């Protein structure tokens, strides 16, 4: 689903980044973009943009939507921002410097809460036919006894935030694009979590193929073996 807001948001973000980098003396031909709404260009400085994560939520009138941006340079995710305007929450991260939350004018560093799986949520989605065909419902049912409950918010950025906040213990997803998960990937790594493919390997993003989609799950490495027993089935 695509709305006018998706396109307008991407235009504003694209123009803002180009202007800001120009002020820093960086030429536009050095800047590349991968954006959800058919924004494709290459450059030394790469920005990956999801201008409206949770489009269906936005169109329906719920608060679970946001803007996700990550900066990629020298083959590494360098910095990221995830902003949820209706909730007044902005998460930022820079490689090696942790994750910060700005809320009500105050900024605090995120300290991950170590909670047992049985006191946390499992987050997932069954919004698309591909998720059903891939057996996501069966994986959810198999994993459910390990968790307090299963929740589906329809906004992968927000779900990744719930990992950071200690609300969720794991996420299992299918068909996510690089703009859905790259910002959260950096933030998760900053607090000791990882994203994995369904074979238990560290998830690798291929920016040369921006249309790729990624089956993945995320959890703390200490829970990897336990969760893999069910994800790999």
UniProtKB/TrEMBL annotation:
Offer an example of a GO molecular function term for this protein. metal ion binding
Key words, A-Z? Hydrolase, Magnesium, Metal-binding
Read off the CDD domains from this record.
IMPase_like
Q: Which co-factors does it depend on?
A: Mg(2+)
Specify which residues bind Mg(2+) according to the UniProt entry for this protein.
50, 52-53, 180
By what name is this protein known? Answer: Inositol monophosphatase
One record GO biological process: signal transduction
What is the scientific name of the source organism?
Candidatus Roizmanbacteria bacterium CG10_big_fil_rev_8_21_14_0_10_39_12
Record keyword Hydrolase present: yes
Against Pfam families, the record matches this protein to: Inositol_P
